[in-house]
Design brief:
By secondary structure, this protein is an alpha+beta fold. It has helices spanning 30-38, 45-56, 60-66, 69-83, 109-112, 144-154, 158-169, 187-200, 225-251, 255-260, 263-280, and strands at 6-7, 13-16, 22-25, 87-93, 102-108, 124-130, 133-139, 170-175, 178-179, 207-211, 218-222. Helix 2 crosses helix 3 (60-66) and helix 9 (225-251) crosses helix 11 (263-280). It is elongated.
Length: 281
């Protein structure tokens, strides 16, 4: 997916998701960053990622919750690219118990985005043979809403979370032509359905192929886009809060007035305030 955006009104851009869906997206602003600070202790990373995206999408919450997971992940990456830039730096830890070395990861947003898919459908059907019969399953792709509901359940029971997502996304399932519930599907059929979903929405899961330079172990790490981006922006928000505090003390401006200023202008006012304090000493 190229590093290009089409201009849209009010400083936003038009972005194409992997499914071909085109949305209007704007960069994260100061109010959005402070929203992340305010929700750090009361919202899970997955739901915060969706909420942040909803604030920046032209279609708002309804559009964000209806996105397939792959489109959601891609648009969060595009939001990060639009707000911070292309280069992504992170620190991972080697999973080998005897090693545990820290690994510096440096990638480009473009490397994390997959090419555009064929147009997605609202329903897929598959037949899988198992030891106890032939299973026919019709399903839709999981959405942001499904992922967020599953993430809430996964805090206490990851297996129950997977079942909940399956129940929401399976439209029909049969064994030898007779209806069965999604919960009754054998683990092999569940795995086959999950693999089929991922095959049709490959952006939904970002895997990084890593090699530890210390112990030479090769491993795969999942890249959680929502958690990574919200942590990055929280750090920016903490810095912004200090800027608001300093400018409010110096000039008496309201938080809303300060947040409406471009970042470069805020920085210049801070320089002037620091210069004035240095003269008065």
């Amino acid at each position: 997916m190229p590093n290009t955006f089409s201009p849209a009104p009010d400083g936003a851009v038009i972005v194409a998701a992997p499914s071909g869906l085109e949305v209007t997206l704007r960069a994260v602003d100061g109010e959005d960053e402070l929203f992340l600070l305010d929700t750090a202790d009361r919202m899970l990373p997955s739901r915060r990622g969706t909420a942040l995206l909803a604030r920046c999408l032209g279609g708002g919450e309804q559009e964000a919750r209806a996105l397939t997971i792959g489109d959601r992940e891609a648009l969060l990456l595009q939001l990060r690219r639009l707000t911070i830039g292309e280069a992504v730096d992170a620190v991972l830890r080697c999973p080998a118990t005897a090693c545990g070395a820290q690994l510096d990861l440096g990638v480009q947003v473009a490397e994390l985005l997959v090419p555009r898919y064929e147009q997605l459908r609202t329903r897929y059907e598959m037949t899988v043979d198992a030891e106890d019969g032939a299973y026919g399953v019709a399903f839709r792709l999981p959405t942001s809403d499904d992922l967020d509901e599953g993430a809430a359940i996964a805090r206490n029971d990851p297996e129950a979370a997977a079942t909940a997502i399956l129940r929401r996304c399976v439209l029909r399932c049969e064994r030898d032509g007779r209806p069965v519930t999604p919960e009754a599907l054998p683990s092999s059929i569940r795995s086959a359905v999950a693999e089929a979903m991922l095959a049709r929405d490959p952006q939904a899961e970002i895997e990084l192929e890593m090699r530890c330079p210390t112990c030479e172990r090769r491993f795969t790490a999942l890249f959680d886009v929502a958690s990574f981006i919200t942590r990055e922006l929280e750090d920016r928000a903490a810095h912004l809060l200090r800027e608001v505090h300093a400018l409010a003390l110096t000039y008496g401006w309201s938080e809303a007035d300060i947040l409406r200023m471009p970042a470069q202008r805020r920085a210049r006012y801070l320089e002037l305030a620091n210069e004035s304090r240095a003269v008065l000493r």
